[in-house]
């Protein structure tokens, strides 16, 4: 196994470049297939939702923030501010970092940048959906001030899981 790259060698990019959309979908499809058995339906759903985000992307209210090591996209996080089921609030989505890059502060930096992005547009709240069984991500969310506000079981991501909606107030 290779040693992880030092955080100083990470390049961060805001916005879409050719290949980012496909890589985002690939990373999520592979990770969730391994983590909880998601299949092609999950990949198609992710591709459709990510493509819709790209198509309606407004850099004043939406953010795609990616991490790259050696020219390879290794991490993604997005803020969806223009098209959410909770108008006027921002939704954090597609937060994922390759396993070999975790535990170095890259994910914390990405989450901090995403939350900082939400303040100038004046979003009062940032929310996200996650599932139980992702302890690393859950710890990062809690450390950043997110709180669980809703829990229920369903198969919205094609595999039945216990879902949690978490939110962080920015207007307090």
Task: Please describe what this structure looks like.
With 172 residues, the protein is α+β, with helices and mostly antiparallel strands. The chain has a domain of 117 residues: Aminopeptidase (3-Layer(aba) Sandwich). It is built from four helices and seven strands; from the N terminus they run βααβββαβαββ. A seven-stranded mixed β-sheet has the order 1-2-3-4-5-7-6, with helices on both faces. Strand 4, helix 3 and strand 5 form a beta-alpha-beta unit. Helix 1 runs antiparallel to helix 2. It starts with 9 loop residues before the first strand and ends with a strand. The model has no long low-confidence stretch (mean pLDDT 89).
Short description:
With 172 residues, the protein is an alpha+beta fold. 32% of the residues lie in helices and 31% in strands.
Task: Spell out the key features of this protein.
172 residues; alpha+beta; seven-stranded mixed sheet; 4 helices; 7 strands; globular
- CATH-assigned fold name of the domain at 7-123: Aminopeptidase
Q: Low-confidence segments, ≥5 residues, pLDDT <50?
A: none
**Order of adjacent strands in the largest pleated sheet:** 1-2-3-4-5-7-6
- The assigned CATH architecture of the domain at 7-123 is 3-Layer(aba) Sandwich
Helix segment tally: 4
Helix content: 25-40%
């Amino acid at each position: 196994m290779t040693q992880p790259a030092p955080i100083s060698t990470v390049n961060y990019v805001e916005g879409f470049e050719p290949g980012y959309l496909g890589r985002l979908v690939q990373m999520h499809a592979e990770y969730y297939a391994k983590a909880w058995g998601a299949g092609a339906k999950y990949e198609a759903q992710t591709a459709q939702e990510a493509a819709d985000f790209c198509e309606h992307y407004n850099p004043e209210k939406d953010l795609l923030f990616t991490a790259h090591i050696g020219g390879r996209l290794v991490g993604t996080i997005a803020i969806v501010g223009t098209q959410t089921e909770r108008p006027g609030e921002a939704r954090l989505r597609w937060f994922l970092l390759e396993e070999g890059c975790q535990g170095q502060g890259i994910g914390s930096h990405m989450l901090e940048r995403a939350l900082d992005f939400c303040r100038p547009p004046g979003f009062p709240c940032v929310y996200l959906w996650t599932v139980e069984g992702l302890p690393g991500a859950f710890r990062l969310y809690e450390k950043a001030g997110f709180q669980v506000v809703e829990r229920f079981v369903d198969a919205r991501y094609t595999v039945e899981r216990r879902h949690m909606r978490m939110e962080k107030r920015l207007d307090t």
